[in-house]
Amino acid sequence: MRRLHNLDLNLLKALHALLEERNVTRAAARLSLTQPAVSGMLARLRQYFDDPLLVRTAQGMMPTSRAEALAEPLARIIGQIETLVQPLEFSPAELEAEFKIGTTDNSFRTVGIPFAAQLQSLAPHTRVAFFKLRREEMEEKLAKGRLDAAIAAHPAAPDNLRHKKLYHEHFICALREHHPVLQQEWTLDTFCRQTFALGSFYGGSFSGAIDRELAKLGRSRRVALSVQNFALIPELLRQSDLLAVVPSRLVQPGNRLATLPLPFPSAGYDKLLLWHERTHFDPVQQWMRGVLEGAVQREAT
């Protein structure tokens, strides 16, 4: 068995940074150390684990199988140590911290903006960075500390992450004010005769959940425009005769848009706040999640 006294905490922190950054220069900047110092630490780590850990390839430095096996337990250990040295009580007004939140552009409008405003009011020395959320990367980034929390719809949420329901969302049909269809009887037939814009999470798709609901009814609609940025949809609708089925919270007061209910049943979805087990007991992270949840509740009232 290898002796732990040959492996200090600074080496573990360096390994954690190296495995996440996969670049000695970036890891050194993250650790506030010089590049030669981190190179020396990597050499000691290689000797201790008897493994190269990171190898140079055409795509840059890549982790070995041994390093990949170390990555998740190491991230968990670093998170637990950071929690251990946190004061049991802290003053939000004096807190200096940076939070990293993964979200979609739609969730940023409905959750991120009120959260950022509330955070600056309660803890003016904190910073928050929002990242575009990719569902297939969510669990890994939360596990490795690249994200502190994520906001996602229930079907996209991995089962093994901690989560809490923020709100239930339902779909509505949005269109410009004074659209001719507003003078017609609003039925399923009327809906299916219209031309639609669609928000595509990955881009390029002309069908989605609503089209699957229509297919169950033996119906379909025409989607003429697909955009990856959901935030563009209100402006597109204002300047055209297109309609769009959108989450209800996307249409804000003053958007100069009209709304209609869907003329067929649609279940909607729950919007969740997700985080990893490694930050579950961290008092600062717990406080941050409470602020986010409270901001959403205040926005809904």
Question: What key phrases describe this protein's structure?
Answer:
D-Maltodextrin-Binding Protein, domain 2, about 20% strand, about 300 residues, alpha/beta, Arc Repressor Mutant, subunit A, five-stranded mixed sheet
Describe what you observe in this structure.
This protein has 301 residues and is an alpha/beta fold. It is built from ten helices and twelve strands. A hairpin with a 2-residue loop joins β1 and β2 (60-63). The model has no long low-confidence stretch (mean pLDDT 88).
Short description:
It is elongated and about 80 Å long. The longest helix has 21 residues, at 65-85. The chain has helices at residues 9-21, 24-31, 35-49, 65-85, 105-122, 135-144, 188-193, 209-216, 233-238, 283-300, and strands at residues 54-57, 60-63, 98-103, 127-132, 149-153, 162-169, 171-176, 195-199, 222-227, 243-247, 257-260, 269-275.
